[in-house]
Amino acid sequence: MRERAKELRKAGFLHEVVFWEKLKGKQICGLDFHRQQIIGNFIVDFFAPQIGLVIELDGCSHDERKDYDKEREDYLKSLGLKIIRFSSRETLHELKSVIKKLKNFIEKEFQKKKFPERKFPERKFPSPRGVAAAKAADGVYRPDAKK
Question: Domain with 18 in it: what CATH number?
């Protein structure tokens, strides 16, 4: 399954690549999106783990797989995930509109949910690879302090 997800990321349909350019780098609501993410026995097009959002871009292959898509959607919803779908045509020809709909959906569905902050262990001083600036006696790191 992992190899299949990797293949899909490398191959990249045009509509997915164009959409990914707008998602990557936390460009949408400051969220981190993953492309071709494995969830259970399924691979979703895009996933924002901070808020549990799945984005599916439906191309012509989805027309022939309605039962599979329904099973997959039911499974994802059973995990408490939200799903939003856009057509490949819409993504290619009306990208600004798609991005606006996505932002509105996120704001509406997740407005009360606070996005978790990444927590890192506290350090009194920089790591050994960090800047070798002076360490004050009170344990506070001051990068502008003289050696």
Answer: 3.40.960.10
